[in-house]
């Protein structure tokens, strides 16, 4: 059925062999079928296993997804794609193009830059000389000097009269072997409106990919070629470089290898800037008087809820205190914290933006933050966590913003779920009826059932045990 040479192919080699025979967009399932004929799979669901392999191991490396089901081999997707390098002062002065990061994902990772071919506008080869230049970069530890590889183009830059602020427009003529055509665009020839339009399109594509990603991150190795392949005119007049597009978009940030939401912070940054100020908007005294009515429920037991009112000028510390009271959490121990839930895309997924934490003594990064400064609209969901050890989550939804009542004292609890009381089991066993207000954790664990007790039975037999109050 199969000959020995086909058998010795790895799965990735089989995929590459199939991709080499394809010259345009094709469905993912067609690729899977073709690969499976030359690389028989023993997976329980070969088609599904192959789809996963294409998404995880080939996207951005050998192919791109034009949409969730359509594939284009990367060499075809990148052929003729144009991008812009806005020259730094150093590049213009030295007559060089610094390779990283300008050529990232346009120059195949496995290729040695010395093997790159550069062509001028008339397709005449330019000599490729690799040099090293020193560059100052900003790091969390201050400015540092690093060495970068660059193409020495001093002769060509001189004949072209290249100056700072000019651009080099690069066309990928052969992605597989690393060939690029260079054009010099003087700053005065820059078509600003077209560039802005293209930048918006590219930023939108990258942002949509981020919104669709499950883990709030897209890896640039995949995202950059995919976004360029999805542009309406990737071979036309180029917009800004993708790094500049991300830098100019307030929604996005690039950390050197991944694209994320702009308010994402790395563990290192969180350590360094722990007390980073929370973005707050100014508000009028009248808005400060207004009352924010929130419905707060336990995340995993939404039937347990309280409605809480707080005024715009009041703080997250006061909000934390009333929520502790509402859910009978200890007021003198443990941290509390607030997050804003921001919807991602059109689905039900959301991401969490920290609004700060409150310590039980009223301090903490969020303690001074006033409710009205958060710019909340009715329908907005927050998350409140009590106790960063036990991590008790509450979903807190802003129901409406109303005028304050005269002589009312805020914050206050104005409604709660109808309690469904349970009876004390010890009393029940003795033919009495009383409300259970405690659960004995030790006895519950031992007996593998909830041991629910009234105040009297608690004192009469479980004083030494670990118990918790029941929340109704
Ligand atoms: Zn009892
Ligand atoms: Zn007990």
Q: What features would you describe in this structure?
A:
By secondary structure, the protein is of the alpha+beta class. It folds into 5 domains: 4-73; 79-189, At1g16640 B3 domain (Beta Barrel); 195-272; 285-416, MM3350-like (Structural Genomics Hypothetical 15.5 Kd Protein In mrcA-pckA Intergenic Region, Chain A), CATH 3.10.290.30; 425-469. 28% of the residues lie in helices and 29% in strands. Strands 18-17-19-20-15-16-21 form a 7-stranded antiparallel beta sheet, covered by helices on one side. Strands 4-10-11-6-7 form a 5-stranded mixed beta sheet. A 3-stranded antiparallel beta sheet has the order 1-3-2. The model has no long low-confidence stretch (mean pLDDT 92). The chain binds zinc ion (2 copies). Residues 424, 426-427, 434, 453-454, 456-457 line the site of one zinc ion (ZN).
